[in-house]
Design brief:
Blueprint lengths: L3 H20 L1 H38 L2 H10 L4 H16 L5 H7 L1 H9 L6 H13 L9 H9 L6 H7 L1 H16 L2 H11 L3
Length: 199
């Protein structure tokens, strides 16, 4: 009936309502106030990181950094394919130390305009390639949110290292999908071009 996000929000509201009914006014506020304060702190930190990342990209591009990136990517051996391979490897490696949203706000605005100026790069195809690549950042350590979710629901006898090893096949499947879309770009572009007439 709903997506996981909406279902989770309904569950959270229901939990808050049940807690308020069970605990009563004073006890509920004593429990609820620290939770709200901690949630506000974490959310504020995330927003500050995203704002900082966005400002970095804007300043970098304003100072002509995107022109430098374009020259650097153009001069790479292999032409367009070489530049795309380097960008995909860089995005994959950044996923180990940065969240996907940070990569979207910092890296994509810098490299995407340069790649789109190269011959044969379809914007829809590039967006799908970057999205597939960024999905792996949700799975590999140390910052992969999927790993934290798994750690939260697995029994204590399952070690974190076992979770890290267990995620490897899923990362390989993502990378295989990336390779398939690379060699068969129609998988990403056929439907949008069919719906919007190649625009």
């Amino acid at each position: 009936m709903t997506t996981p996000t909406e279902a989770a929000s309904v569950g959270a509201v229901g939990t808050i309502a049940l807690s308020a009914l069970k605990l009563g006014g004073g006890a509920f506020l004593r429990v609820f106030a620290p939770v709200v304060a901690r949630t506000t702190q974490v959310t504020s930190m995330i927003f500050l990181i995203l704002i900082g990342a966005t400002l970095f990209s804007l300043v970098f591009r304003g100072l002509g950094g995107d022109d430098m990136v374009q020259r650097g990517l153009t001069d790479l051996p292999g032409g367009t394919a070489g530049a795309l391979v380097i960008v995909m490897i860089a995005v994959f490696l950044l996923g180990f130390v940065m969240d996907a949203f940070e990569i979207i706000f910092v890296v994509v605005p810098i490299v995407a305009p340069a790649l789109l100026k190269m011959p044969g790069v379809d914007p829809v195809w590039l967006a799908i390639m970057l999205a597939l690549n960024l999905q792996t950042s949700y799975m590999h350590p140390p910052l992969g949110p999927t790993l934290f979710f798994l750690r939260g629901v697995t029994p204590p006898e399952i070690a974190t290292t076992q979770i890290y090893v267990g995620i490897i096949p899923f990362v390989l499947v993502q990378l295989l999908a990336l390779v398939v879309v690379w060699f068969v770009p129609g998988l990403a572009t056929w439907l949008p071009h069919h719906l919007y007439g190649g625009r």
